[in-house]
Amino acid sequence: MRYPFSEIESKWQKLWEDNKIYKTDFSKLDKKLYCLVMFIYPSGAKLHCGHWYNYGPTDTWARYKKLKGFNAFEPMGYDAFGLPAENYAIKTGIHPYDSTMTNISDIRQQLKRMGCMYDWDAELMTCNPEYYKWNQWLFLQLYKKGLAYRKNAPVNWCPKDQTVLANEQVQADGTCERCGTLVIQKNLTQWFFKITDYAEELLKGLEEINWPEKTKLMQRNWIGKSIGTEVRFKVENRDEVITVFTTRPDTLFGVTYVVIAPEHPLVKKITKPELKKGVDDYIDSIKSLTEIDRTSTIKEKTGVPIGANAINSVNGEIIPIWIADYALLTYGTGCVMAVPAHDERDFEFATKFSLPIRKVILAPGTKPEDEMKTAYTEVGVLINSGSFNGLNSDVAIDKISEFVEINNLGKRKVNYRLRDWLISRQRYWGTPIPIIHCPKCGEVPVEEKDLPVELPYDVEFKPGGESPLTTNKSFYDVKCPKCGTDSHRDPDTMDTFVDSSWYYFRYLNPKFEAKIFDTALTNNWVPVDMYVGGAEHATMHLLYARFIHKFLRDLGLTKSGEPFLNLIHQGTITNQGAKMSKSKGNVVNPDEFTSKFGSDVFRLYLMFMGPYEMGGDWSDKGIAGTDRFVQRSYELFSRFIDCLTKSPAKNIYDIDILNDDEKTVYRKVNQTIKKYDEEINNFRFNTTIASLMELLNELTKSLEKCSGEIQAYSLERFGILLAPVAPHLAEECMQIIGRRESIFKNPVWFEPDLKALIEDNVMIAVQVNGKLRATIEMPMNSDQSFAKQIVFSDDKVAKHLDGKSILKEIFVKNKIYNIVVK
RNA sequence: GCCGAAAUGGCGGAAUUGGUAGACGCGCUGGACUCAAAAUCCAGUCUGGCUCACACCAGGUGCCGGUUCGAGUCCGGCUUUCGGUACCA
Fold this sequence. Notes:
Layout: H1 5-18, E1 32-37, H2 49-67, E2 71-73, E3 77-78, H3 83-92, H4 96-114, E4 124-125, H5 129-144, E5 148-158, E6 163-165, E7 184-193, H6 199-205, H7 213-223, E8 225-235, E9 241-246, E10 257-260, H8 265-270, H9 276-288, H10 291-295, E11 303-311, E12 318-324, E13 335-338, H11 344-352, E14 361-362, E15 381-382, H12 393-406, E16 410-416, E17 421-422, E18 424-425, E19 435-438, E20 442-445, H13 473-476, E21 477-479, E22 486-489, E23 493-494, H14 496-499, H15 503-506, H16 519-525, E24 528-532, H17 541-554, E25 564-568, E26 573-575, E27 578-579, H18 591-597, H19 599-608, E28 616-617, H20 623-638, H21 643-646, H22 660-681, H23 685-702, H24 708-725, H25 727-736, H26 754-757, E29 761-768, E30 771-779, H27 784-792, H28 795-801, E31 806-812, E32 816-821
Parallel strand pairs: 1-2, 1-24, 3-4, 10-12, 24-25, 26-28, 29-32
Antiparallel strand pairs: 5-6, 5-7, 7-17, 8-9, 8-11, 8-16, 10-13, 11-12, 14-15, 18-23, 19-20, 19-22, 21-22, 26-27, 29-30, 31-32
This protein binds one RNA strand through helix 7, strand 9, strand 13, helix 11 and strand 28.
């Protein structure tokens, strides 16, 4: 009979739910395991293969841990705020709340049919006021500490989504991370979280977490620590001072000009009146450049002189001041000392505009008068550098910095590439920012007792660059809580990455009312032990969550310094080479397969496809293989009804007294347990399943020929090994052979009988001059002298030794016998 | 440009610290069962040579070179693909 997956899967899902099999007892702390997947964005596209690939195998791992005796907690929830729901509302008129709720209830059903052991009592959704109230509370705490602030700054604006974006949310090609539209720069007043205050700690913390090296490296690069020196240059004949930041103070004597970012406020003040028009024109030309042009790698540097000069602090030289597009206002001081001889960008610029190039570091094996074709950026000996001549440049970095500090010309400084996190969005479907703007008092934070500031239902969604919340007068117009003057609420909402930066705390008690989360539980259960999700979040969610976690620790709400101890990225499943997305129309719907084969077969197939962290292009070619595996397993169990009760097995057998078939089966069972354990523990699901297939092949061949006890012994173990990878199938199979309750109710695991693992005989390879000439069977652990006798009496080996002299013999026990001849 | 990962049969992919390359599965070929088909079961399946066949021989893990008794695995130099990043002073 074909395995009736449909009725069996719903039968066990109902049984699990009715008996609350997956409810976690938080009071049991021995071997607690918090296993988390990134929660789901409830879009209209529902669950796709990518979600399945994230959730199914992770659940398998958690189930395995549960059988091993861990008290595993697996929650699931909804990252329910966000732009797509609002864009959908603009298009169709369906309110984001309504579409989100519909999507959530559909997705919840789909999730339940997957058969994961989620603790549904822990379910949460971020669009619920009982959740986002605490985003607002968090905002207020950051505000109190000066870590949430407003400033006017050039920011990324997505013309399609009509909102600003954080740096992290703009892709390398200058397009919006969400919709792919080209992002433009705008000067706007926006809310920021001061993540830069934690830059150093975010960097240090990476050392203590077990994450993929690649991800840690991405975060390190994103934080971009650089150690250098700030040096003040006076502006000639004026009071203004230009401060530059350099990582190469050893080249200070080689400065031949200074570059300031075109948007720098100083530019207006010190530009020579005669040159004002040219400078203004240049600044305009920079603004009109598209993002593509600006980021183009082949774009030539541009710039103009502003007619003012600076005085090099270390040698008193008068040098011209330029503005140029390659100086960035947002990094360091926005001013650069240019050393064309030893910096590639400065070299290119100086060559183009015929600015002087002065060599101050001599490359080994060159002469001072040699002409420079490119900048020399390596270590060398200082020249043209006054009293520092003759020093090695790496030593001079320190010496010149010291000189700068002693003479009060500047100071050593560490800079980070990381910018503050821009969190305000000019959109509706998010957490309202709990600030009231009063014409008299300015920014007035909403009092904690007045939280949540509830998101009103009635708003107009028309896009226009203004937050839709301004269209609801009863929300927008309020009296100032301090002085009673007519004021209005901040009309912006928060970036949804705020929601996801602390949700793992909330899962432990999502209904908790007294505080942001229930510290009585979180102190025991956070940090998360295993976190599984996509690598695309490396410098966004995964960085924000670490930041907020550290802030919460500073508030005394958690003892840990890091949110996620272990992290694994599932690979990306692509379709025809492209990432699956609704807009590309290449989404593969898992229902197509689960309705045909069942969710266990689909889960098995996803795991069997290849290494979990690699992903790959979607193909359903091999699904027949895992389907056959399920059918054959079910058939096998069906041939041994109630064997557990008819002839109960002992825990261990002496392999030496078993007959040949029993011995083979008994050994294979135990070898499989060992192999399986090693593979699945490290998320190597493909080889885990391969080992089960090997076992099934062996059992199909020989189990009939074994005693009833060995049959029970083998099937009981096989069934338990099946449970993590195909939970419904395993429950049914175990019931067939006589188990009376769910495997997961009182989890069991079988340790391998180590004595049985050792084969009696091994095949060893015999090589002559490194080439395989024969394989010979001999007893396990035979020593060299014994092996030698057998090897040299072998005809094939003798043939290759004929007439040659033996130079050397290499013997590796149980592996190889190599004879070197001439 | 810079940083990181990868490259193995017709396909997805296996291969502890260097030790029999191709586990497991898909597909394909042949056979059994069937009136027939599907399903299932059995056998074969890296390439080339030779052979009726078994056997045997040679080559083979992106390319070139090296270390070693022995390299998919280690070292040096490339090529291609995929991620990340974009003048960060």
